[in-house]
Amino acid sequence: MSATVEAAPRRAVVRWLVFATVVLAMLMHAIDQTSVATALSAMQTDLGASLAWIGWTITVYSVGQILVLPFAGALGERFGSRRIYLLAVTSFTTMSVLCGLSSGTVELIVGRFLQGLSGGVLLPVATAIVSAEFGKDRDRAIALFSTAFPIGAILGPLAGGLILTFASWREIFFVNVPVGIVLVCLGRALIRETPRTAVGRADLVGIGWLTALLLSGMVAITRIGSFAEGWTGPASVALAASVSLVAGWFLLRHLHRHPAPIIPPRLLTGQRLGLMNLMNVLFGAAVLGFSALLPHYAQIRYGMAPISAGGLLTVRAVFMIILSAVAVSLLRRLGHRPLLLTGMAAMTVSLVLIALPPLHSGPELWLSLGAGVMGLGMGLAAPSSANAGMHLVPEQAAAVSGLRVMFRQVGAIVAISVVTAASSAAADPAAANAVAFLALAVVMGGAVALGARIPNQRGRW
């Protein structure tokens, strides 16, 4: 199909208006992703649900992103990035309304899942729009565009805490509505359609089995706390676990038989990539689990206000950004392994600090220290872990990058599901959360052990 975009470049002011529009969309997505973590306690109280099910508002959002990321770029190539971008923003805004109006946990979970699907589409199509708009300067524009997520990590927890201080958790979602309307209007007026190309069919069967595996696994973990309900509790766990095992077996068989599977089998285990994938699962469980659970933990154990609890994630994000710049400057000189191991060791220390009671300080200062150490570790480990996987198969760097995101999200889903289920079943949820952070420290220790086996790489690759 022929392209609908004219090749001539436009004035700089128009290009930067387009850039600002898509960056604002990514900020909306990134802020929503982190601000909801501050509202778990408020949603649990208002909806009268257990923490295990309220935790799905975070995990099911990640599931939506995992499922759509493998083919979101292909949707833009086939139907045009502008059209898919406008559809994604409209859907994200509509689902925000649904989440805000939810009268029960099921409605909220469904809305968050659909929000995750919409948010997962935004990143690849927004990147394509920026790339097409800036032409030869696309590298700098995309590098600048990528700062939306660190900024969102800083603003999201603060925005969530601020909204909860003066309003309810529902306004966290409603605030997206005017922003989404403005983005749709700006997008229709400014963004040009990108060229369309013929692409292969998406692996819908593989996506189906992956969906069944993730959701049934989450149900099995969530229902573990229902054993006191009689025979129905263990039966529901056994049924969900059986579905998960069957779905996992069919998914693996499908990956080895499909000509273009959702996950290429050689990228699962070949060339030490199996080691990297397992490390990313553990990394995601510890780090993303920490990010989702810390505000709730600060509120239930120490009675911190939502804005103070959310501010802990802002402290982490600030230190992460600072150390990331240092790590990038040291990568070629030291290689990725020393930075990776140092960073993950710091994150292990952070998790232990968070679990321990405050020493010679108040809880705000103590938890801020733990969050700051986590940020330092993430700043060192994030750039180095990205290079550690991609240098193994540089010709498929994009695919490896996508798998890194997917496996980290899978680790986060498992960790958050387990911790929230355990906390719901515990007589003392605050103490159970403290034990959970120690368990996450052990998980991160396992990631350090795996990282030590990854070959180092200095200089260019």
UniProtKB/TrEMBL annotation:
- Where in or outside the cell is it found? Cell membrane
**InterPro entries recorded for this chain?**
MFS, MFS_dom, MFS_trans_sf, Tet-R_TetA/multi-R_MdtG-like
> Mind listing the UniProt keywords for this protein, alphabetically?
Cell membrane, Membrane, Transmembrane, Transmembrane helix, Transport
Q: Which PROSITE patterns does this UniProt record tie to the protein?
A: MFS
Give the Major facilitator superfamily (MFS) profile domain ranges. 18-458
Question: Would you say which domain of life the source belongs to?
Answer: Bacteria
- What membrane topology does this protein have? Multi-pass membrane protein
What residues form the membrane-spanning segments?
Answer: 12-31, 51-72, 84-103, 109-130, 142-166, 172-191, 203-225, 231-252, 273-293, 313-331, 338-359, 365-384, 405-425, 431-452
From which residue to which does the signal peptide run? none
Q: What is this protein called?
A: DHA2 family efflux MFS transporter permease subunit
Source species = Pseudonocardia zijingensis
